[in-house]
Specification:
The protein has 194 residues and is an all-alpha fold. It has one domain. Helix content is 82%, strand content 0%. Helix 5 packs parallel to helix 7 and helix 6 packs antiparallel against helix 7. The longest helix is centred in the middle third of the chain and has 34 residues. It is globular, with a radius of gyration of 17 Å.
Length: 194
């Protein structure tokens, strides 16, 4: 495997992991569908993702997760639960698609790059939702939920089609989200000090 192929494989894993930071189950479902239809090779130990039972379970979990994020209060609770789940899902999805590296390197990459990226994305979105809840009394949370859902789907599909572009999109998203958080934090400080 060439260095470029390894870079693409890692970019695919990181892109999918970032998508799990937005929605835990949707990227796993996308991977499951792609693997089941023969469009995505998986590491041998993750062949279970390409089975009908995995497709069914991930479809149900994805639907429940999507709907739950539109229930006021439940969305904030889900953010608390999704952070550790995103770390695990990001690690799993990265390890599943990084197929041609030695196990130690693969798992280190999956944990650090995959799980780390998923955790950062999830943390940023949880902070954004918390700010949205405070600043808009939760009125803007459904818009945020829809944006996260769309982002998760777009990043998942883009990671499959153009992994390096997906990686750039993830970097751009993180930069913009952190700028927005800094802006909201600065704007909220004077009113809390007054």
């Amino acid at each position: 495997m060439s260095d470029f192929d390894i870079a693409v494989s890692v970019a695919l894993g990181v892109g999918l992991a970032a998508a799990t930071g937005l929605r835990v189950f949707l990227p796993l479902l996308v991977v499951s569908v792609a693997a089941y239809t023969g469009h995505l090779p998986l590491a041998e130990s993750f062949a279970w993702l390409a089975t009908p039972p995995a497709l069914i379970l991930l479809s149900v979990a994805t639907l429940v997760e999507i709907l739950a994020y539109y229930i006021p209060g439940v969305d904030n609770l889900l953010d608390a639960l999704s952070t550790p789940a995103a770390l695990i899902a990001g690690t799993v999805v990265s390890a599943a698609v990084i197929t041609d590296l030695p196990p130690t390197v693969k798992w280190a990459t999956a944990v650090i790059a995959g799980g780390g990226t998923a955790g950062v994305v999830q943390s940023v979105t949880a902070l954004l939702r918390a700010k949205s809840t405070v600043l808009t009394a939760g009125v803007a949370n459904p818009v945020l939920s829809t944006t996260e859902l769309g982002g998760s789907l777009v990043v998942s599909l883009l990671a499959l089609a153009a992994p390096l572009v997906a990686l750039l999109l993830v970097a751009l998203f993180l930069w913009l989200a952190l700028r927005l958080l800094l802006h909201l934090t600065r704007r909220a400080k004077p009113s809390s000090e007054g």
